[in-house]
Write a structure and sequence with these properties.
Helices cover 58% and strands 11% of the residues. Strands 7-6-5-8-9-10 form a six-stranded parallel β-sheet, sandwiched between helices. Strands 2-3-1-4 form a four-stranded antiparallel β-sheet. The radius of gyration is 29 Å and the shape is elongated. It has helices spanning 15-18, 25-37, 62-77, 81-87, 94-104, 116-130, 136-155, 165-177, 192-203, 216-226, 236-242, 259-266, 303-309, 311-319, 321-365, 371-400, 405-415, 419-426, 433-443; strands at 2-9, 43-48, 52-59, 89-92, 185-188, 209-212, 229-231, 245-248, 273-277, 294-297.
Length: 444
């Protein structure tokens, strides 16, 4: 089994490419189903955010998996082979595990140490698990990644400075238009990004914020939490005519503010208008930046100010490299032990069957035993079996994680005559829930 992490992010692909792969839950489900149907992927999790789309897979062959992934990218998401080759990175095994740990901990984010990605990774895993598209390997790996990220944010200073894309957007707005107090501000969208932006703007003195959303009820609830005004979607053109600052983060599939809409709005005013688009896909038509009196900032152009505020976090991140590597090595050891788990489970299964058969024969030959005596003998026979198995199991675990581990496992199964049982437990299609429990118990 190989663990593969393949994807693109804000470092490897511009927003025009990333917005093509801003996947809905249904698209993620379809993509995972397609990859599993192709037999090139045994387990999968897809992480899709405004700054990255990554496919994590447990696969037998990396080459076949990447061919199938490239085919889906081209056919379903209109990403050419050239764009795929130029934008996608691939990590394998230990490198893939380390990459996931860094992503989940915020060490690979545009804003180093940000915590939003932790929840996004957790949600991506839980959704894939619900399909179900995960198994023993990813159930373990993603739980470890989330636990590690929580610990790093609690025990270090990696997340102390308040930097995020929304924070950077507000800082940039202050630089461009000055103090926010008294400025007419329109926030388009009522999601998490907009919530952070409003918090940061109010902290900088903003007191004339109006939120607008396609669902007025959601806009009204959002406004109630922050003591600001809400307006219906139909009033957007009118609000654009009056605003001095517009911030957007809707998650819509296409632009919600067009250049034509802005041209009409500009006819009614003379003040400059600053527009900050935090959405992927973009909420504002890029042509808006060409209009007189309009300054448009998209999410990629926020990178510079983000970097200014991230220097301290970057220094802290360097200190975390040994911690990440230790966690990576711990998982690699678990993976090696996972290879021997079917053999251990098969040995225990055979030993339990032999013990139970001998115990039942004894009961038939000694019918005068009372219930207490039977329990005592039952516990004694189980204890004998466990003591006999203890050293062989400890030794094969040690041998399996070293050089020549596969040969050691093969010899182990032949010595105890458990080849067939081991194959039955190891094969996912043949193994039932009890077999999976046996493997987990064997590792414990």
């Amino acid at each position: 089994m190989r663990i593969i992490a393949a994807g693109l992010n804000y470092k490897t692909a511009p927003v025009e490419i990333r917005e093509k792969l801003a996947l809905s839950e249904q698209e993620i489900a379809d993509m995972l189903a397609g990859l599993r149907a192709s037999k090139s992927m045994m387990e999968g999790v897809i992480l899709s955010t405004c700054n990255r789309t990554e496919v994590y897979a447990v696969a037998e062959r990396k080459e076949q998996f990447m061919l199938d992934l490239a085919y889906i990218m081209e056919r379903k998401f209109n990403l050419s082979k050239e764009q795929f080759a130029a934008s996608f990175y691939v990590h394998e095994d230990n490198a893939a595990v380390e990459h996931l740990f860094k992503v989940t901990s915020g060490l690979d984010s545009m804003v180093v140490g940000e915590t939003q990605i932790l929840g996004q990774v957790r949600d991506a895993f839980l959704y894939s698990q619900s399909l179900p598209a995960t198994g023993a390997v990813f159930n373990r790996l993603f739980k470890q990644a989330v636990t590690l990220a929580k610990r790093l944010h609690t025990e270090t200073r990696i997340g102390q400075k308040p930097v995020s894309v929304s924070y950077a957007a507000v800082e940039l707005a202050v630089r461009k238009i000055g103090a926010l107090a008294g400025k007419r501000i329109v926030v388009v969208g009522a999601g998490h990004m907009s919530e952070l932006a409003v918090k940061h703007m109010q902290a900088r003195g903003a007191d004339r914020i109006i939120v607008i959303n396609r669902s007025y009820d959601r806009a009204a609830q959002f406004a109630g939490r922050f003591g600001i005004a809400a307006s219906s979607w139909e009033t957007l053109p009118e609000l654009l005519s009056e605003a001095e600052l517009v911030m957007t983060a809707t998650g819509a599939a296409e632009s919600v503010i067009t250049a034509d809409m802005l041209r009409r709005a500009r006819l009614n005013r003379s003040e400059p208008l600053l527009m900050i688009d935090m959405g992927v896909p973009r909420d504002i038509d890029p042509l808006a930046d060409e209009l007189d009196g309009v300054t448009l900032i998209d999410i990629d152009r926020l990178g510079a100010i983000v970097n200014e505020n991230a220097e301290a976090r970057a220094k802290e991140a360097l200190k975390l490299t040994p911690v990440i590597q230790k966690e990576r090595n711990d998982f690699a050891l678990w993976m090696k032990e996972l290879g021997v788990a079917p053999a251990i489970a098969a040995l225990r299964e055979k030993a339990d069957a032999v013990r139970e058969s001998a115990y039942q024969d004894m009961l038939k030959k000694l019918p005068e035993l009372d219930e207490r005596e039977r329990k005592v003998i039952g516990k004694l026979t189980k204890s004998i079996v466990n003591q006999l198995l203890r050293d062989p199991i400890l030794n094969i675990k040690e041998l399996a994680t070293g050089r020549g581990g596969e040969a050691a496992i093969e010899a182990f199964t032949r010595i105890f005559g458990i080849e067939e049982e081991t194959r039955r437990i190891a094969e996912p299609d043949a193994a039932d829930a009890d077999g999976e429990d046996d493997m987990r118990n064997a590792i414990a």
